[in-house]
Amino acid sequence: METQYARAQVGRPAPEFEMASTKNLQTLAEPVRLGDYAGRWLVLFFYPLDFTFVCPTELRGLSDRYEAFKAEGAEVVGVSVDSVHTHRAWLGAPRDRGGLGELRFPLASDLTHAVSIAYGVYDDRAGHSLRGTFLIDPQGVLRSALVHDLDVGRSVDETLRTIQAFKTGALCPIDWQPGQPTLQPG
């Protein structure tokens, strides 16, 4: 039975999801759900496939900056169409053999592709997701959606800066950085 999900739209409640994950790497029995992150920001991060080239640079980069996200009240979840068993193998494989190493956030498995479709990142010709970064606020509203092709990795700094800008509750000009003034309407 295929699960029907709402479509992601900025400014609207984020589509609900429940996916198997590596939250418990030993048992792989702890799923991730949107509701698990109520009251916190969530960086929902789609990537094409495990054991690839650009993806590990992004995942390691997010993991390296995980404490900065936590300091902003944000959690991170990585999602691909690979199984949790493949995720576990990738996390456990040595880096010199294409392995990822330890991450500070869970990887989720979208085997049915339903969540990737709901968030508009599924490429049905390729059979996997594009790179997609979705920022969901503590009330479950999708505040930002960034989707692009496979060749170029995303900026961890920009993802963090965007959360910081949203948290001001103000109008933030181009290249705004924490501590800088925001714009005043009128």
The CATH superfamily title: Glutaredoxin
Radius of gyration: 16 Å
Indicate the percent of residues in helices: 10-25%
Number of strands: 9
The topology string of helices and strands comes to EEEHHEHEHEEEEH
| Cross-sheet strand order for the largest sheet | 2-1-5-4-3-8-9
Task: Give the distance, in angstroms, between the N- and C-terminal Cα atoms.
Answer: 53 Å
State the name of the first-level CATH class.
Alpha Beta
Structural class: alpha+beta
Could you list the spans in which at least 5 consecutive residues all have pLDDT below 50? none
Number of domains: 1
What does this structure look like?
It is a single chain. The protein is α+β, with helices and mostly antiparallel strands and 186 residues long. Helices cover 24% and strands 21% of the residues. The strands form two sheets. It has a seven-stranded mixed β-sheet. The protein is globular and about 55 Å long. The relative contact order is 0.20.
Q: Quick gist of this model?
A:
It is built from five helices and nine strands, in the order βββααβαβαββββα. By secondary structure, the chain is of the alpha+beta class.
